[in-house]
Amino acid sequence: MTPQRTNGERFVAKGTARAGSFGAALGRFSVGSLEQADAVRRAVTLKLLSAVVLDTPVLSGRLRGNWTPSTVEPVFVVNDNAKDPSGQQTIETIGNAVAGSQLGQTLYLTNSLPYAARIEYDGWSHTKAPAGMVRRNAVRLQMLINAQNGGIQ
């Protein structure tokens, strides 16, 4: 931009096309940044919640099958027919919930079986989940974010 004097009083900046181009580039950067942030959020959320499911002890698969994702509010329901020993069906359901969620929206993961909290906090499964299912993965959150961002902190 080259400032020029008009009528000896004011300066007028020439090159407003460049300023407009900068604004457009900044807008594209902002949109791209939000899209990147959302992609990181989705990937990290899916990895984190999948790890919770896979760290859930398996006897019949009922505990793994009762992890329930939701976005509006936590869902406190026990599904007596949910048996997922591999955890893959539950992870697929979580993946669908993550894909349907939006940046800035809270995503809940609940397990309402009465013994879920005892396994998490009271050590009911010393050999299969001595550090719990959720707690052991929650401490990995920052590592997952950094890895997904390519080490950017």
Describe the structure in your own words.
This protein is mostly helical and 153 residues long. It has one domain. The protein is 48% helix and 12% strand. It has six helices and four strands. It has helices at 16-54, 62-65, 88-100, 116-121, 135-138, 141-148, and strands spanning 2-6, 10-14, 67-70, 108-111. The protein has a two-stranded antiparallel sheet. Strands 3-4 form a two-stranded antiparallel sheet. β1 (2-6) and β2 form a beta hairpin. α1 (16-54) packs across α6. The protein is globular. The two termini are 36 Å apart. The model is unreliable at 1-19 (pLDDT under 50).
Structure summary:
The chain has 153 residues and is mainly alpha-helical. It has helices at 16-54, 62-65, 88-100, 116-121, 135-138, 141-148; strands at residues 2-6, 10-14, 67-70, 108-111.
Salient structural properties:
single chain; mainly alpha; 4 strands; 153 residues; 6 helices
Write the layout of secondary structure elements.
Blueprint: E1 2-6, E2 10-14, H1 16-54, H2 62-65, E3 67-70, H3 88-100, E4 108-111, H4 116-121, H5 135-138, H6 141-148
Antiparallel strand pairs: 1-2, 3-4
Computed CA radius of gyration, to the nearest angstrom: 24 Å
Strand order of the largest sheet: 1-2
Overall strand count: 4
Quick one: overall form?
A: globular
Number of domains: 1
Strand content: 5-15%
Parts with pLDDT < 50 across at least 5 consecutive residues: 1-19
The overall average pLDDT, rounded, is 82
Describe the sheet with the most strands.
Answer: 2 strands, antiparallel
The H/E string reads: EEHHEHEHHH
Give the helix level as a range of percent: 40-55%
Q: Terminal Cα separation, in Å?
A: 36 Å
Oligomer: single chain
Number of helices: 6
What is the structural class? mainly alpha
